[in-house]
Amino acid sequence: MLLKMSAILMVLLLIASCFPADHTVDDKKVFRYNEHANITSLDPAFAKDQRNIWPCHQIYNTLVKLDDQLNVQPDLARDWNISDDGLTYTFQLKKGILFHPHDCFQDRKSRIVDAKDVVFSLERLRSKTLASPGAWVLNNVDVISATNVSTVEIKLKKRFPAFLGLLSMKFCSIIPNEIDKCNINLRNDPIGTGAFYLKRWEENEKMVLRRYADYHETDTTGQKLPYLEAVSITFLTEKKSEFMQFIQGNLDFMSGLAPSYKDEMLTGNGELNPKYEDRIQLEKAPYLNTEYLGIFVDDTTSLLQHKKLRQALNYGFDRQKMIRFMRNGIGFPANHGFIPKGLPGFGTSGYTYQPEKAAQLIRSLKDEQGLNIELEISTNPSYLDLMEFIQKEYERLGLQVSLNVMPASTIRQKRSRGELSIFRASWIADYPDAQNYLSLFYSANFAPNGPNYTHFKNSTFDSLYNSSLRMNTAKKRIPLYKKMDSLIMEKAPVIPLYYDEVMRFSQKDVSGLGINPINLLILKTVKKQ
């Protein structure tokens, strides 16, 4: 206990040291959150997970961004044009956008962003020397060029209608082209155009971001953003410590909830415990993540080759009950297709709980094959409780089901090699387009060279998939997406379990935080009343 109090005291002293003595920052203008996983880099080329993406989003901008409904909006680009063949994207930059002041600029001042910075940033991202985990975003890019000081042209190797969404990822943040010449390490010396800049970083203890006074955006009344003066990030590694600091009011925000505290914070139907309603607020929204069981359909010796059995497995357990009792109402039962709730294309008819129909399909298959049906489901320990629930549901149908529990890394390896007959998995969107989910069933993407771990193959599906790639607008693609999703449900190479949900807890005095299906933390519009 004494050690924990000492750590908290050190954090408070560090906060105070980040602000000059002659400039007292009102606590009501400091937003505080904890990152228990620790931040590893502020170089946007390495912003591959949430812990790094969140601070990078405050520091940098991209050519385009997503709104809370996942629509592509201007960011550093004021507008753009896509050629009729879908191969050339031309961006016009906003005028007068300034980088954060830095020693690398003349007179240590800031500098206006131009097209050369965009070309440099994207070429750096796909450089083999840098070895960024986000380089794949530009795999389909042929040429990146600046046609003048404010115009950037990107030519693709082949049509890919979701390309704009990829450019909104933090990997594609725009940085100044001087960083190589000045030998700047963006990991701990970031230079961006965002609403905040890095003031101080004591690794594994504290990070402080400060308001950028020359940030280019304003609110609807013309007031300059951001409203906050600073963002304070702590690194308490224990989720229990983070939870206690939030409950005591020392943190303004907490994302998600550890299983050990869900009963304390939530009612059985996923609402905020009434005892906290006077000082804490809860926001929920669909999260672009589909949790599912995948079925390897490329084994001719397995009974899982039979569609009847795969459909029976989809009908054979109660998703509503699973969400209510196993997850305290967090998430949405996957009674539709593979495309998750919150993404355009969602809404295909899927499977509901019909145990009689499941039993009928199983009896029919047993009569045909004259065999008992034995199944093995592979999972990691984190999902064992859900798999045990499904195991019991299937056993009521007369199926013999065993669970194979192994580390997540082992499951990934064996899944890629086609060594698991049924495996638990999840798919979190890399970019906000349903094509991202449907690519798991395209025959050209067979694992290990792609994400088609089930080895599903269907000529009609492939034809629809290829047709969708030739359509520039989402409005035209969505009907094809729904047809593909319906076909997947009918053939049943997967068993969708649930569509995940973002949960955000914040103190009552916080407003403007918002919530979105990719759980992106946007602090430029936050106020503390």
Structure description:
The chain is an alpha+beta fold and 529 residues long. It folds into two domains: 237 residues, D-Maltodextrin-Binding Protein, domain 2 (3-Layer(aba) Sandwich), CATH 3.40.190; 216 residues, Dipeptide-binding Protein, domain 3. It has 14 helices and 19 strands. The strands form five sheets. Strands 11, 12, 13, 14, 15, 16 and 17 form a seven-stranded mixed beta sheet that branches. Strands 1-10-9-8 form a four-stranded mixed beta sheet, sandwiched between helices. The chain has a four-stranded antiparallel beta sheet with strand order 4-5-7-6, with helices on one face. A hairpin with a 5-residue loop joins strand 2 and strand 3. Helix 7 runs antiparallel to helix 9 and helix 13 packs antiparallel against helix 14. It is globular. The protein starts with a helix and ends with a strand.
Give the topology, please:
Elements: H1 2-17, E1 30-34, H2 50-59, E2 64-66, E3 72-74, E4 77-82, E5 88-93, H3 115-125, E6 141-148, E7 151-156, H4 163-167, E8 196-202, E9 206-211, E10 230-234, H5 239-247, E11 253-255, H6 262-265, E12 280-295, H7 307-315, H8 319-326, E13 332-333, H9 355-369, E14 374-379, H10 384-395, E15 400-405, H11 408-416, E16 422-428, H12 435-438, H13 459-468, H14 474-491, E17 494-507, E18 510-511, E19 527-528
